Amino acid sequence: MSDLRELAMTSKAWPFEEARRLLKRYEKAPPEKGHVLFETGYGPSGLPHIGTFGEVARTTMVRHAFEAISDIPTRLICFSDDMDGMRKVPDNVPNPEMLREHLQRPLTSVPDPFGEYESFGAHNNAMLRRFLDTFGFEYEFYSATEFYKSGRFDAVLLRAAERYDEIMKIMLKTLREERRKSYSIFLPIHPETGRVLYVPMKHVDAAAGTVTFDDEEGREWTLPVTGGHVKLQWKPDFGARWAALGVDFEMYGKDHASNTPVYDSICRVLGGRPPEHFVYELFLDDKGEKISKSKGNGLTIDEWLTYASTESLSYFMYQKPKTAKRMYFDVIPRAMDEYHQQLQAYPKQDMAARLANPVHHIHNGDVPESHMVVSYSMLLNLASVASAHDKSVLWGFIRNYAPEASPETHPDLDAAAGYAVKYYEDFVAPTKRYRAPTDLEREALEDLRARLAAWDGPADGEALQSEVFACGRERFEPMREWFKALYQVLLGADQGPRFGSFIALYGVKETVALIDKALAGELLSES
Prior knowledge:
Distance between the termini: 63 Å
Oligomer: single chain
Strand content: 5-15%
Number of helices: 24
CATH architecture of the largest domain: 3-Layer(aba) Sandwich
């Protein structure tokens, strides 16, 4: 066993902990199908949201961790439940009136409101695949519509008909009495309207593999359960899919956790072995509410990537998956900075520490070098003070601070400068509010100005920070009131950077001029 594998077998990083749990599943014998199957599910009822990406990213991290400790081949399937009926029109799509005409039809039978694909389900599937491909995920895409209609699901559907009563018994225990009267694990697709029907079954013929039911107008129909004429309710579908594919690992949100025993029981009834589960906490929007595809609250993948790198998003997904986290625009700068901090720490760490470092799992051990000589948060403050609308403005300051840096030699820094300008324009500039200094703050600012005007040493952030401290130490208690004043008076914000480092980047003379403008009241006109 290699040193890396030995260390991975004891690492406390959560992907390795999950991988070891999965490996125990086959400690007696390898899987008969010849591989370990990871699955992620996607309900394309609305545009793909960032939580969907997180599920695939995290599953991929576990998959890579498993490959580090086992020689068993692996596969990852991304399964789209695109045969589900469209229950409501999403809030964030065009042509809502057109969509209302197709309520309850399978998503792959609903026209694309964007006019780009053969169906709404196909549009949302394409959006998901586009971004999964952008991130370089290795996966196989499965469409429920294709899975049902091609016959690949037929064997399990026929088995569900044979064991209908047993599965119904599992489900009825979970339902209210009123719902039990009309419930069936099978949802027929109406031969004429194409709508998904939620009606009770009059008869299930296991031998013939058919179901008989009355539609909403009281007309009787008999349909085969195979070939895409019928689909399963979502809870039975979960367990049936596990049984049909032989899924070994699937993660899902906390909102599914209470259903796990149901999924597992149905999987067993249908002859399968339930997979290992990983339940993660949900993402919340800025109001603390669950992110919803149909509401369109929270962040989209495209929105995150407007303001930060793909790797910063992966870093955010890695962190504490079993803790609920707000996912809104204000988490982006911290994710960017922490990701690069971990990148910079990686080369100095021993192998055990590297395996615990998030960037090892983000990059599957092939960790790049960080060229961020200036943090993302500092770039944001620089953009704010300079009112920058082009990253070339930031590069003027960066070159003075780090003459060896250029867009060519520091591409990640160049990209971050572009992100910072966009973030500043959209989120910082509209909220920037300067205020006048109090008498005590004016006195401290005049002291700082005098010290900086007399400065003749190199623009060293630590040394300049000492000068900043000296101006506030005798005047403010606690000291954070002094830094708060610097941010509000000079930057128009409530929070800001380590101020000595900011002076080193912005320039000593430039900071003197900034203080002069603040003392003269000129910054107030920029609010």
